[in-house]
Amino acid sequence: MSAAPRPSVAIVGAGLAGAACARALADAGFAVQVFDKSRGVGGRMASRRAEWTGPDGSPNPARFDHGAPAFEARSEAFLGFVEAAERDGLLARWAPVVDRDGRLDRDKAPQWVPTPDTPALCRALLADLPLLTGCMVDTLRHEPGGWVLEASGDAVAHGVDSVVVAIPPPQAAVLLALHRPDWAERARAVAMGPCWTLMAVTDAPAPLPAWDLARPSTGPIGLIVRSDARPGRSRVPGRAHWVVHASDAWSRTHLEDPAAEVQARLQDALAQHVGQPLAWHHASAHRWRYAHAPADAAVTGLCDWDADVGLGACGDALGGAGVEGAWRSGRALADRLVAWHREAARA
């Protein structure tokens, strides 16, 4: 007698929530396929490559982790995950010196930094799974033979048993509206915070700041990261690599401003915080329209799952915000799918 076919799941979104869910389901024997609209994986755990021309005309590569620069692990389950990832060389502990309006200290809880770049964690989770990037799934259809996923009118998957939506709430609402309008309404109500981000290379200030992170309480900047001060990143003598996140309030106010204007404002603010003019070699600005979920957005159960149609949703907005919230939500949804299929198999 032939074995029963593996239950199939299509996951929309290759950020940490989707990647964690995909990995857990694949390990439990599900046939998993992952889709993401971006060219790579990681979602808001993103990295961007750039190149600037040196004084001698030579090309100089740079890489900026312009999403989440580091994160904490609070829950026992997530701490177990990150410690295992550390043993595998995917994460490094970081105890940065933090500047809080001129007061220097170290955070008591260790920070965790993916290596060699922030998408590395998601790449490892998705390493051997079918993955289609550059594919924006814009329609979900539930037919008698299973789910059909479409992108720009073309079917990219069909006959799928279950679908997991693991993208920011405003985008998830579009896919969920026809099938679970209550989920979609709740998703639209989530006040996702935006973030303008500056990525820059300058001459190294003299002297170098005594801090690795700065968290100004006033002005346009919410966070400054000396990007090359983090573990697993190489330092170039005489150069400094920066990632600057504008504050939530400033980003909201200037959300639709031209990128060039935002870049100039953040460059000025960075130089002012460092306390000296900076010699710029590269600078660019990126707008995260949906950068972070409010900490109180989580729902009971950490995720949504409708077994009647085989539809689920996960993400940091359901899991409690941040990197840990995304992971917890993705794993929680995987656990619910596994439990449901086991019960169905016994019935």
Any overview of this molecule?
The chain is α/β, with parallel strands linked by helices. The chain folds into two domains: 151 residues, FAD/NAD(P)-binding domain (3-Layer(bba) Sandwich), CATH 3.50.50.60; 133 residues, Polyamine Oxidase, Chain A, domain 2 (Alpha-Beta Complex). Helices cover 28% and strands 31% of the residues. The protein has nine helices and 20 strands. The strands form five sheets. It has a seven-stranded mixed sheet with strand order 7-6-15-16-17-14-18. Strand 15 and strand 16 form a beta hairpin. Helix 1 packs parallel to helix 9 and helix 4 packs antiparallel against helix 5. The longest helix is centred in the last third of the chain and has 25 residues.
Entry summary:
The chain has 347 residues and is an alpha/beta fold. It has helices at 16-27, 76-87, 120-125, 169-176, 181-189, 248-253, 259-274, 316-319, 322-346, and strands at residues 8-12, 31-35, 48-53, 59-64, 91-94, 97-100, 103-106, 111-114, 131-132, 139-143, 146-151, 154-160, 162-165, 193-203, 213-214, 221-226, 239-246, 280-292, 304-306, 311-313. The strands form five sheets. A seven-stranded mixed beta sheet has the order 7-6-15-16-17-14-18.
Structure classification:
alpha/beta
How big is the Rg? 21 Å
- Which H/E pattern describes the elements? EHEEEHEEEEHEEEEEHHEEEEHHEEEHH
Task: Supply the number of structural domains.
Answer: 2
CATH class annotation of the largest domain: Alpha Beta
Our estimate of the beta-strand percent is: 25-35%
Can you tell me the residue ranges where pLDDT is under 50 for at least 5 consecutive residues?
none
The major sheet is characterized as: 7 strands, mixed
**Which geometry do the CA atoms define?**
elongated
Average pLDDT, rounded to a whole number, is 92
What is the fold-level CATH name, i.e. the topology of the largest domain? FAD/NAD(P)-binding domain
Distance between the termini: 19 Å
Q: What's the CATH superfamily of the largest domain, by name?
A: FAD/NAD(P)-binding domain
The CATH architecture category of the largest domain equals 3-Layer(bba) Sandwich
**Helicity range:** 25-40%
